[in-house]
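Retro notes, item 3 of 5
We never archived the inputs for the MU-OXO-diiron complex last cycle. Fixing that now. Sequence and ligand:
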Amino acid sequence: MKARQIKTNVYWVGAIDWDRRLFDALIPLPDGTSYNAYLVQGSRKVALIDSVDPSMTEVLMAYLENFPVVDYVIANHAEQDHSGSIPRVLAKYPDAKVITTPKGQDVLVALLLIPEDRFITVSDGETLSLGDKTLEFIHAPWVHWPETMLTYLREDRILFPCDLFGSHLASTDLYVADEGQVYEAAKRYYAEIMMPFRTSIEKHLEKLKSYKIDVIAPSHGLLHNKASFILEAYRSWVTGPPRNIVVLPYISMHGSTQRMVEYLVGALAGKGVTVKQFNLAATDIGKLAMALVDAATMVIGAPTVLVGPHPNVAHAAFLANALRPRLQFVSIIGSYGWGSKAVEQLTGMIPNLKAEVLDPVICKGSPRDEDFKALDNLASTIAKKHKESGFA
Ligand code: FEO
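Structure as it came back at the time:
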């Protein structure tokens, strides 16, 4: 197969995975994904930047048939969707060395059993000359593993950031054409993978301000030839204030929690608060994660099962806790039949959310007038808190 040229002697040699629908046996991929690898041909040396998922090794190897020599394999990130084909590449090029961070070597040896003598480790800011092209390595721990680095091709001003700025999107386009589509896919990717590492990403974004970047070439999805589009999107997700939004994940078993949810949603909407309601029996958790990027408040709608919260709701609370969104306020509403510790159990499951817990509204059986009044009060409190915090 013929590699696709990005700039003179810089090629895309990746694989498009149109049919993959789940990542890490957890994350929905409604639009498939791609594993982007790149080949940089300098006047003296040749480097392959990242590889592809092991399920698509043959696609990469077909591209490499046109390149008799590869001197270096740059491993920006050790996760197998980018590193998994490296052993095959090393077998094809017995003199090639893997360039990575010291931590990257440690992880790659553990995951792929690559012999230690195949590695050269690089420090932050170190460069590697390929002749007329120079690679600079920028250590970027915790986007989203601790060993990660970004590679910057100085002469062509291309940043290869691996997962960072990526999106799970299968497409034959090389560059972003439909910004709306890519914005959604990149936001979903940020929400699911990067959001827990906001603090690290903020520092990396600051560091990247000193680089002139013409192209951002991530290892999933489309390339950005307008770098400011994705950099500004990331800045807004990472450092922007939360918005006047309530995320409401819920389950209802016999209709009582459903009625409470519908009532609260109406009350909040009447006060000018946007609500994003997710029935956890049917929702795509990626959409829930995306909504958490912007929301100021989460209200969990939880019926009680065996004294605790419904397991689907517990799953959503666990997920929100792991993703560490910018939520400022949290509350719980729901119904129980004969006894409940749902509130205690749910609030105990979200220690990472540094959010103020607003008075829950829990009722026995069907909600009555006093319960609806309590929901009105909760809506008023949320609207007031959002206004006082400058979110509305
Ligand atoms: Fe796309 Fe963290 O791997």
